[in-house]
Design goal:
Elements: E1 14-19, H1 27-42, E2 52-57, H2 59-62, H3 69-85, E3 94-97, H4 103-114, H5 117-121, H6 124-130, H7 139-153, E4 159-162, H8 167-183, E5 194-197, H9 231-239, H10 259-271, H11 276-283, H12 288-314, H13 317-346
Parallel strand pairs: 1-2, 2-3, 4-5
The chain binds adenosine monophosphate (AMP) and tryptophan.
């Protein structure tokens, strides 16, 4: 977790994060993101007591590139199910779907008029995603981080758990909040949201190539452990994971030039809630033929309950839809008044309550 200026006192501490509903969740998403959400749900941070936690399925962000409607519908429900299966509790957190709360899109428009083209031009993710054919990227892909600012600020969220890659987007959110407050003479109207950056240890790499992130877009399914994988599949993927012929070293610096070995040890450490050194204390000098079965056993122990809960929830789409409907209602009850105050301040008339 990193440190930036503390949020202004007036704003009660609230957590907001979002995940796109595109494709199955894998071990990287779990260890790097959703498990952090679960931790923030159950504990407070360094004495900060959170008033609300919002975990949002950001389907409008997914639409910055064309989606297949049927696959998206499934993806929204699957991601919601994965949130629940990983331990998010719809009573403790507000779990909802972005497009079901119209305030996100409304505030995004306002922020489009606050953000400067020069600011958005600097976003490296847009440059990466648009690639060479920038003229052909959607306007939505360009405005993506502005919608992200709206997600966060519609709830006046103060703490945003994200990966390192999203840091720049969060800085833009802070700039937008500050310019809005300044333009409308309302210091502190929106808070300056603070990133909660996950440690590098939370970066899970591909099982086939230790220099690449585990990713849903990697063609080989053997490169990742999906949360849906059954025990045999998990065991097989770990058995076939790329390694080197050396035994495990006795300290973390012995893994420096060994990305695949380091990844497997880091996964073990993360799943066992220990450190890389803890794992090496236990396995120093042991070959992979011994370490891999131990890792497989641990992974199955931790992930099998999630997979079975995912299967159970997949058979109950009505329940998932109900969770999302409740979440949207609770989210809208908070975002609605923020939008009303925003419109008021701007001289816009909002006749609906
Ligand atoms: P994505 O699947 O890329 O949309 O990412 C969803 C969330 O999971 C984001 O918060 C990412 O930072 C996180 N994430 C994705 N892949 C990994 C990975 N290999 N290791 C750690 N975190 C990841
Ligand atoms: N852009 C984020 C990602 O790709 C997802 C996201 C959308 C988000 N809105 C957000 C994350 C608001 C944090 C807060 O991971």
């Amino acid at each position: 977790m990193n440190e930036t200026a503390a949020p202004a006192r007036r704003h009660p501490p609230r957590v907001f994060s979002g995940v796109q509903p595109t494709g199955n969740l894998h071990l990287g998403n779990y260890l790097g993101a959703v498990r952090e959400f679960v931790r923030l749900q159950d504990k407070n941070l360094d004495g900060v007591e959170f008033e609300h936690r919002f975990y949002c399925v950001v389907d409008l962000h997914a639409y910055t590139v064309l989606q297949d409607p049927e696959a998206l519908r499934t993806g929204i429900r699957e991601l919601t199910a994965a949130f629940l299966a990983c331990g998010l509790d719809a009573k403790k957190s507000i779990i909802f779907n972005q497009s079901q709360v119209a305030e996100h899109a409304e505030l995004a428009w306002i922020f489009n008029c606050v953000a400067r083209i020069g600011w958005v031009n600097r976003m490296t993710q847009f440059k990466e995603k648009a690639g060479k054919n920038r003229e052909n990227a959607s306007v939505g892909l360009y405005a993506y981080p502005v919608l992200q600012a709206a997600d966060i600020l519609a709830y006046r969220a103060t703490h945003v758990p994200i990966g390192e890659d999203q840091k720049q987007h969060l800085e833009l959110s802070r700039d937008i909040a500050q310019k809005f407050n300044h333009d409308f003479g309302a210091e502190d109207f929106f808070p300056q949201p603070e990133p909660l950056i996950r440690s590098e240890a939370a970066r899970v790499m591909s099982l086939r190539d230790g220099s690449k992130k585990m990713s849903k877009s990697e063609p080989s399914d053997m490169s990742r452990i999906n949360l849906k994988d059954d025990a045999d599949t998990i065991a097989q993927k770990i058995r076939k994971a790329k390694t080197d012929p050396e035994p495990l070293p006795d300290a973390a610096d012995g893994l420096e030039e060994r990305p695949e070995a380091r990844n497997l040890v880091a996964i073990y450490a993360a799943l066992s809630d220990g450190t890389v050194d803890d794992v090496l204390t236990q396995y120093a000098g042991k070959p992979f033929s011994e370490f891999k079965p131990a890792l497989a056993e641990l992974a199955i122990e931790k992930l099998a309950p999630i997979a079975s809960e995912l299967r159970r929830l997949a058979d109950d789409p009505n329940y998932i839809d109900q969770v999302l409907a409740d979440g949207a209602e609770r989210a809208a009850a908070i975002a609605g008044p923020v939008l009303r105050d925003t419109y008021d301040l701007m001289g816009l008339l909002r006749t609906r309550s």
